[in-house]
């Protein structure tokens, strides 16, 4: 009768199991962060309520700041005790990032809410189908400003997009490392940071040399906006072209395709989605400019479809003039200013949605 041999336990293999259990044993429930946030907000509210009894005013911003600090301290302490120090730091950093995101969203939400609440009162059929010609008090609309904004911005895009696209192609495909390319890059960086009023002064001085001082035309505003758009288009296009893998270019060269045809058929189609997004960002960056258009295109109360003849109204200048030159009743002028601002925001949003749609349609297809 043979005796059964029982192997002794291996101490080397049991240690990692114990360490693993110790590391993963504690875990907070999913509702814990929300509960701690509520407790922190309640404790901070109690503190500020007691303070408000003496001052007579409840400090809402202070309450939010103290609530956030109490929550961060509480979630770190509780998580470090239950889940370990590493998980506690992770939750602390997550809370800091979330709070920073909410702080960054506050101005955007505040501006959007203010414009919508104040601008809705001015919206009507007359507001979109009439101009300010012969309007003294109430009534009138922004049709002339919408037409002027679209025409001036379209002309600026026609001027700036080819220049910016060809400049970026030269910098990436032809002038990499040479002195001229470095000089162009430096000038583009300088142009990116120039104030918009400088672009307006440049366009005004350029046209004043040929037509005399006091000239105002829509095309002048287009030139001023093009000066602001070109560096944005160059930078966006340049970055997108650099993301195209060199293997695609080399494969085209190996087949005997000329360089210019490789750029047209391979490089640009591959990066067209990013280029389109960059162009639309450039348009959104200049469509709301007021100072250069106030100097170059001016303001008028009548319709003007000719960029080369006379003053032309735009939405930002219209909103500025209505707010700064209030008549009787003043509420009508203020409502028209807020309404123009709301329409301008909607146009910018629509342009961004169109850019996303175009980028999705023209993006290179993956797979077969």
TrEMBL record:
ABC transmembrane type-1 domain boundaries? 146-355
Q: Where in the cell is it found?
A: Cell membrane
Keyword Glycoprotein: yes or no? no
For this UniProt entry, which segments traverse the membrane? 31-54, 60-82, 94-122, 142-172, 184-211, 217-234, 266-287, 337-359
InterPro entries assigned to the protein according to its UniProt record, in alphabetical order: MetI-like, MetI-like_sf, Phosphate_PstA, Phosphate_transprt_permease
One Pfam family from the record: BPD_transp_1
Superkingdom in the source lineage: Bacteria
Region Disordered, annotated ranges: 1-22
Q: What does this protein do?
A: Part of the binding-protein-dependent transport system for phosphate; probably responsible for the translocation of the substrate across the membrane.
For this entry, the protein name equals: Phosphate transport system permease protein PstA
Species this chain originates from: Microbacterium aurantiacum
| Origin organism lineage | Bacteria, Bacillati, Actinomycetota, Actinomycetes, Micrococcales
């Amino acid at each position: 009768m043979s005796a059964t041999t029982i192997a002794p336990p291996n101490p080397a293999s049991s240690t990692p199991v114990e360490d693993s259990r110790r590391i993963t044993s504690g875990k907070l429930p999913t509702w814990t962060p929300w509960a701690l946030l509520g407790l922190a907000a309640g404790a901070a509210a109690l503190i500020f309520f007691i303070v408000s009894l003496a001052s007579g005013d409840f400090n809402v911003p202070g309450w939010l700041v103290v609530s956030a600090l109490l929550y961060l301290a509480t979630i770190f302490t509780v998580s470090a005790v239950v889940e370990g120090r590493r998980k506690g730091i992770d939750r602390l950093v997550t809370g800091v990032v979330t709070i920073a995101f909410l702080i960054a969203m506050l101005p955007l939400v505040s501006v959007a809410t203010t414009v919508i609440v104040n601008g809705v009162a001015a919206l009507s059929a007359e507001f979109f189908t009439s101009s300010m010609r012969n309007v003294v008090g109430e009534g009138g609309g922004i049709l002339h400003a919408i037409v002027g904004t679209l025409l001036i911005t379209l002309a600026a895009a026609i001027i700036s997009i080819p220049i910016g696209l060809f400049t970026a192609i030269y910098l990436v495909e032809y002038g990499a490392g040479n002195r001229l390319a470095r000089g162009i890059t430096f000038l583009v960086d300088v142009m990116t940071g120039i104030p918009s009023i400088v672009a307006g002064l440049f366009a005004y001085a350029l046209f004043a040399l040929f037509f005399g001082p006091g000239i105002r035309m829509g095309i002048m505003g287009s030139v001023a906006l093009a000066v602001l758009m070109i560096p944005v288009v160059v930078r966006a296009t340049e970055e997108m072209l650099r993301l195209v893998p060199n293997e695609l270019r080399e494969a085209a060269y190996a087949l005997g395709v000329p360089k210019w045809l490789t750029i047209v058929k391979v490089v640009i189609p591959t990066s067209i989605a990013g280029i389109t997004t960059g162009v639309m960002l450039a348009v959104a960056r200049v469509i709301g400019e007021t100072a250069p258009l106030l100097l170059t295109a001016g303001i008028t109360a009548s319709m003007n479809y000719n960029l080369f003849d006379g003053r032309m109204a735009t939405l930002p200048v219209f909103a500025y003039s209505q707010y700064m030159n209030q008549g009787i009743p003043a509420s009508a002028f203020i409502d028209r200013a807020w309404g123009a601002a709301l329409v301008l925001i909607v146009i910018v949003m629509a342009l961004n949605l169109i850019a996303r749609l175009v980028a999705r349609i023209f993006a290179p297809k993956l797979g077969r």
